[in-house]
Fold each of these.
Amino acid sequence: MNLLLINSIGRQKWGGGEKWMVLAASELIKKGHQVHIGCRINSVLEQRAKEANVPVVRIDIYTDFSISGYLQLKKLVKKHGIELIIGCQNKDVRVAGFMSRMTSGPIVLSRQGVQLLNKSGKYKWSFLPYCDGIITNTNSIKKEYDSYGWWDDDFVKVIYNGINDSNISDKQLDLSRYIPTGIENPLVIVSTGRLAKQKGFEYLIEAASSIVKQHPDVFFFIAGTGKLEMTLKRQVHDLGLDRNVHFLGFQKNISELLNAAHLFVLPSLYEGMPNSLMEALAHGIPAVSTRVNGVEELMKDGEHGYIVEPQSVSALERAIEQLILDTELAEKGQRGAEHVKDKFSIDKMVDSLEIHLLKQISK
């Protein structure tokens, strides 16, 4: 197959969708396919793709009616013999789909790690005509989309994200400089993600305020960058949590950080299939997660940790407290690791993706 994966996300942004794109491209190349990633130049996505030895091409799509993006795609399709395009943003799909319709070009699919459509006429008439199918990573999104009645049952394909065991490090990040001397058995709670409203860190910080009063040897570490960094740091300071809550900034090797954790918390307001939670479970770390898309397919409440309602500080407090006091913490972590490695392996993801794409091309 000759494939082009495009993502017009901002230059400094990096998240689950971008991780999926680089991983999928890299693994498909290993299976003998020709794959290019199209993105903005000097972006984090471009850098990570090159680090993974995935060929990168420049794509400039800033709006749904991008003339430059249209011309770039038309030229790339002809030059590389592209048979299928996967777009990660709605505007990517619209521009690629319009180009394809005008030139009798390649199949155009939309890859959606989070819900990007709703039952609105604007999507039925401005998105659907330019899209040949959707790939998502949760049954909950497929169920929602299929309820619109716009397509047959095969239009939305669920392909779970995959975890790469070989990326799990045997090293552990040293967090001792953040922990006061004299504390022999600190309990480390980790949360990762963009410092944005979607990720719900403000609720986690508020929950931490009550937890550390009862458990002063519990320490929270938040890894990530984003627009809310100063706001969240101010919240930590105002609540008197500077001793127990620390921001680590961007961490390139999340595995080493997870190896230092006893618990993981995902306080998000919405997600698709959260890669950060999958990675934590794969490392054998019990988790507390909000009940967002994909989580109930990824972990079992009470068995691998606890699932709580979004935006509920009290629910986060209770669930974290339960795990802090749990005498079977290691067993929960082990069960979570076995579950994720069995159901969400990278091999299963890539095999399912390859079969689906070949089927699309052969139609």
Note: The mean pLDDT is 93.
Amino acid sequence: MTDTPDQQQRLLLAAYDAQLREAAEMASTTSYDRAGPLWRGKFGGRGFVSYRSLDGLDGPALDELIAQTVEHYRADPGITAFEWKTRGHDAPPDLAARLIAQGFQAQEQETVMVGEAAKLAQDVSLPAGVTVGRIDTLPDASTALIRAAEATGKVFGETLSVEEFLRPLRHNPGQVEIWAAQTRQETICVGRLELIPGSDFAGLWGGGTLPQWRGQGVYRALTAARARAALARGVRSLHSDCTAFSRPILERSGLLPITTTTPYIWTR
């Protein structure tokens, strides 16, 4: 008997919670420690908080844990900001309000999509003059990666240093691939494939496309190329935190939305 979509989503959500949180989210950090249910990582000038469950903490006890976490990062003068990553299915339901009360700011909500890599590994036509390929293994990789970092910063409207852009690649050697769609003149779409050792998954990250190139199949082609690369490395399942732009593309390809995620940012 075939599982219903609701049953598939519940199974995928259980696998996501078990395999893609806590230690899996510390892979790119330079250091991390534990505090109760929390995993607290640091990388460069930023921090990141992960957990699978808050172990039933609520009320004043949860407020105290949040305050202790703020003080943990505040005590490190090298940290300028940190992210507390929440999921829509987590308890307690008033966690967001408690974070905001202690100085966090909510970022854009994204949808967590999970599914089979084979469903994304499709043939996609590209606009004339556009090519898609892995760039971190090219003979002139340094030039290509600088262009990719610049393009990613433009897409997401932020200043992104090359060092920050390359952090996942350097801290997870052999587990991260950087792919790009390019013309002869510019890089127009960039995305990473990140394998997660000890899990059934790889992650699709980035994938932002310059505005003038959207709606022409570039993101779909970059996603398909990364899905084929995942399959070639023996990975059958993919996950992605996606925006409203990319969700319809991934959903049409067979990935399922299983929850939402909202980053809450504390800034010094």
Note: The longest helix spans residues 59-74.
Amino acid sequence: MSKHLTTALHLAASGTPVLPLRAGKVPFGNCRRCADNACGGRPNMKTPGPCTCPNPCHGWAAATIDPHVINSGSWRRAWQHASTVAYHPGGAGMTVVDLDDVDAIAWAREHLAATRTVPTTRGEHWIYRGAVTSVNGARPGVDVKSTMAYARWLGFGTGPMADLPDEVRALVDKPAPARPRPLPVPGAVSVPAGGGRCPHRSPVFLERGLVMAEQRISVATSGVHNAVYSAFLAVLSTHGRCGCLTEDHIARLFAAAQAKGESARHCATAWTNALITLGV
């Protein structure tokens, strides 16, 4: 039995939903049956749906406390290739305040109640009792991970766990900033003309594809250029020939890429390259 599987079973026994992460601290990709959310449920950033796939291939929504699932054949194979164990804090009634640098830690020590603390590679996880909506970039160097999110398991940490303070609730309840629009780029970005057979079963199908592409970009920790190109390619391969993509849809994808530090020029180049690759 791998050490990650052993850890996962111990956590699940305590009521903490777990899932395996592959290299790069990202979930295992969807299997063929569930690729592009074809199974109709459990996209990573939505409420879990009806999918009963036995593979751990739905990000945070795959997290479970069921030892029979965790120790099943497909999960055991995943644990053998996993780089670490993750857990779904909201599913365990917890919130992780992820502090990414010394400035964020200093802010937390000044403004937040002391609680259980776990060291990370670059900072600390402060773990509270109580679940809220997850928000990346709640403030500089601070992510809030709770519902519909996962956090790496880095040990039990030190100190008693405190109740979630109002200061954290205020961070996630503040109005969301307006979605950034792509900066002007040299030349026009092509919008696929369409004309092919539309595969969409409903408008939700297109929305799910866009959300999954945005997430693929947002979780990239390295190789952002490749992540952006792959996300553009995935959207265009499914939606680029039926005429459903609009400038607003492209703006969403560009905004997600720019939020990861991509320039407007790089976005335009990646989009054009994806169009050329697919012959759209």
Note: The chain is about 35% helix and 15% strand.
Amino acid sequence: MNASLLATALDLAAHAVPVLPLRAGKLPFGNCAACRDNSCGGRPNMKASGPCRCPRPCHAWAAATTAPGALQSPAWAEAWREAHAVAYHPGGAGLTVVDLDNADAIAWARQSLPATRIVPTTRGEHWIYRGAMGSVNGVREGVDLKSTMSYVRWLGPGTGTMIALPDAVRALAVKEPSTVRPAPLVITAPAPTGGGECRHRMPAYLERGIAMAEQRITEARSAVHTTVYRTFLAVLSAHGRCGCLTDTHVARLFTAAQAKGESPRHCTDAWTNARTALGM
């Protein structure tokens, strides 16, 4: 077990900062077999999270906890043995991190944002504000907002006085209205008609699954084609056989994919290929 990382995690947890281990590549540990593809029906440490009560560090950021018993439990021991770093859930701690990924982004922040606590990173800086908001990647070149439903690597306490989340940061998450009227989104790949047994147990399970799929596509920084296909495959695997998946849900997935630069044709092909792979 990496005692140093665990000690850091316990110290952060004692200060009400939800933490989780990261494996190589700054990635969270994958879901266990019971939770793979969210077949468990929910994520831990969330309100109305559904039936999942997995004791392992599953579901990425949602596994972050302040409970010392969980952090030191046998279920987490293997993860700590393989861990390379500690991460925390900013939104769970009531914080927002402006992740500045390069020198140009830092120069922009110094001119545009109020000074606050700053933590140096490998390529840039984290500017940390007191207050939570929705996480949004790519609000401008080299700038991401990390807060709710996200995780950030712990790199130390930083320097400077932390201030309340300013309107200038909140405004970054608001897209300016376009002067170009978009063409209507045409869904050429209908939802499956179903006929199988519904495993959702409650409507929130399906809604949560679609929201997670949208987030997975939105946060893709590379291999977008592959991410879209695999996300469609996961959604269809979990929700495609009972008939609860509607054209509205499909439209949400297509919209997220097209926002990442995918064409309507590629969305249709990816959806069709996923259905074919699952025998639908």
Note: The chain is about 35% helix and 15% strand.
